[in-house]
Amino acid sequence: MSDLEGESRPRWKGVPGGDGTGPEVADVVQLVDMVKVGRMIGVLPRSLIEPMNAGVVCVPVIDAPLSRLVLAWNEQDRRPLVASFVAAALEAKPHQDSVAASQ
């Protein structure tokens, strides 16, 4: 992230206290459009960069902070698809302090 100091980064609509200095964006599609026209840079998780729009280059940010993914679902939801998604998510990336939350 040190190489990105001074670059214009997005301010996310409805998210107070962010560190962005660039234009306000409401979603990833808008962010990528702003990156494409040279208004800012964006830092996105790997899961959102493929496939990427033509004209936008993605490079790994080696010193980016780790991010946390939280999985939440309604505890009353008994659909097999939801149960299999939760099981697959927990199996894909086990972590010693993983917590599956329900709402």
TrEMBL record:
Residues 23-92 form the LysR substrate-binding domain. This is LysR substrate-binding domain-containing protein. SUPFAM superfamilies: Periplasmic binding protein-like II. Residues 1-10 have a biased composition (Basic and acidic residues). It holds the Pfam family LysR_substrate. Residues 1-24 are annotated as: Disordered. It comes from Amycolatopsis oliviviridis.
